[in-house]
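Renewal narrative, Specific Aim 1. Our central claim is that a sequence can be written position by position from structural information alone. The example that follows is taken directly from our test logs and has not been curated for this report. It begins with the structure tokens describing the chain, in the order in which they were read.
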């Protein structure tokens, strides 16, 4: 029973709780629906308000854009109106200009017609004048023209010769003064003594008894020495001396050193001779290198290839007309550098080219070709600059000088060679040069006699006065100078003197 009661009470509680919960849920739902309606109404009002605001803003923006567009349209219209007015003004100006041009064309046309008429009248007058001149002179027109042109040519020729003569005299006077100053300064700065060198060397002996020891048994010693050195030993009646003869100065120097050491040592036999010759060759090679280095150091020429240094040293034992080539090269470098400094040319290029200008002579007896061509090949092989090669290769006139430094090296070479006592010339070459000089002068028309005087440094030319006038003598001197420069090689300069003489003789009785 008790349990049943509990069950009924429980069931009743559940039923009452159910109905209570349902009643409470319906109340909450109603409240929520009312709240939702309120929120919806507020959102609808807010949306309407926002829509009205957006519409107002859109209307304001549209109005502003419309105003801007209208303003731009007005400005564009005003600009177009200004352009139209300018175009109209230009059209009016062009029309006025066109009218002026038309008027000018009409004026020009009238003037052209008037000029044509005047030209026709002038031609008629000229033709009549020419006919009258022909009638008066009695000469045809072509003949008269040729005679006038001939006279004009002669007058112009004489005037040209006179102008050339005066200009040459003035330029020569100024150039000579300037050149003499430059050359004298250059020579003073590098003045050096000249000693002619020979193709023989002399070895002093302590006694004539030493000659027999040099010859050796059946001449074996002298044959060994001559074979090893390539130099001829001349043992003659000269007391206490042996002469070494040979055209290779390096070999001659080797033989001299070897023989002097053999004489000092006293032991002279083939084995000892071979030993001394070998030692002398090494010493000469070292001397060659030292000479080349000293030459470059003396001039301040840096960066030379070691092989060029050796070739410079070999020039110490090379002579040209009795002049030592290394000393000559050093002097040419100094002269060229001094003159370059005086006139503002490149001193470094002039000095370097002057030192290397005869480098080909170090091997010209071993290689085919002129010493200039050999030198150019050597300088290119050892990477010398183009400016130095260009200045060096023109010093004998084989190519045209292309730079100021080339002219300076050529002039310095001539100065060094032309110094009194610097070089010796064989009688045969001297006579040939004089004959060639006279032949060049005699090859010109109107020359009567030509005489080379002052050891070939001047040539005096007697001309026929009936063929060569005074101005013609000026032109003749210039032509002879050009031909001498082209065909003849000579040291220094040659003076050309043209003499024209006329004599009037009368006898009083």
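The sequence written for that structure reads:
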């Amino acid at each position: 029973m008790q349990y049943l009661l509990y069950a009924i009470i429980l069931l009743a509680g559940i039923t009452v709780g159910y109905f209570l919960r349902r009643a409470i849920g319906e109340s909450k739902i109603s409240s929520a629906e009312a709240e939702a309606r309120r929120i919806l109404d507020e959102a609808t009002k807010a949306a309407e308000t926002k829509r009205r605001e957006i519409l107002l803003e859109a209307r304001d923006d549209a109005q502003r854009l419309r105003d801007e567009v209208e303003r731009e349209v007005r400005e564009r219209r005003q600009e177009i109106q200004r352009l139209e007015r300018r175009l109209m003004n230009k059209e009016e100006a062009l029309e006025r200009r066109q009218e002026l041009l038309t008027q000018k064309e009409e004026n020009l046309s009238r003037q052209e017609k008037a000029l044509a008429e005047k030209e026709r009248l002038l031609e008629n007058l000229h033709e009549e004048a020419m006919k009258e001149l022909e009638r008066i002179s009695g000469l045809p027109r072509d003949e008269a023209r040729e005679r006038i042109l001939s006279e004009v040519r002669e007058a112009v020729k004489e005037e040209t010769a006179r102008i050339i003569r005066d200009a040459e005299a003035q330029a020569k006077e100024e150039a000579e003064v300037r050149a003499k100053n430059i050359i004298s300064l250059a020579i003073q700065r590098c003045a050096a003594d000249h000693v002619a060198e020979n193709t023989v060397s002399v070895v002093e002996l302590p006694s004539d008894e030493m000659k027999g020891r040099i010859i050796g048994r059946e001449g074996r010693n002298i044959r060994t020495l001559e074979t090893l050195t390539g130099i001829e030993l001349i043992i003659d009646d000269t007391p206490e001396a042996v002469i070494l003869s040979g055209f290779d100065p390096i070999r001659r120097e080797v033989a001299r050193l070897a023989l002097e050491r053999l004489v000092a040592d006293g032991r002279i036999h083939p084995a000892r001779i071979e030993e001394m010759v070998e030692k002398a060759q090494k010493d000469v090679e070292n001397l060659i290198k030292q000479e080349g280095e000293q030459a470059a150091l003396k001039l301040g020429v840096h960066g030379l290839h070691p092989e060029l240094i050796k070739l410079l040293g070999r020039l110490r034992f090379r002579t040209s007309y009795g002049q030592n080539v290394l000393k000559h090269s050093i002097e040419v470098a100094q002269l060229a550098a001094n003159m370059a400094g005086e006139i503002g040319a490149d001193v470094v290029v002039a000095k370097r080219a002057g030192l290397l200008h005869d480098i080909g002579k170090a091997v010209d007896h071993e290689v085919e070709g002129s010493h200039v061509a050999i030198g150019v090949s050597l300088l290119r092989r050892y990477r010398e600059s183009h400016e130095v090669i260009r200045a060096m290769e023109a010093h004998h006139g084989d190519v045209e000088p292309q730079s100021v430094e080339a002219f300076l090296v050529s002039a310095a070479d001539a100065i060094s060679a032309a110094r009194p006592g610097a070089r010796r010339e064989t009688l045969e070459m001297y006579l040939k040069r004089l004959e060639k000089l006279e032949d060049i002068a005699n090859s010109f028309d109107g020359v009567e006699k030509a005489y080379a005087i002052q050891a070939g440094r001047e040539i005096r030319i007697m001309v026929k006065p009936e063929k060569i006038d005074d101005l013609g003598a000026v032109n003749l001197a210039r032509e002879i100078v050009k031909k001498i420069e082209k065909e003849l090689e000579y040291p220094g300069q040659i003076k050309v003197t043209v003499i024209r003489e006329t004599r009037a003789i009368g006898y009083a009785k």
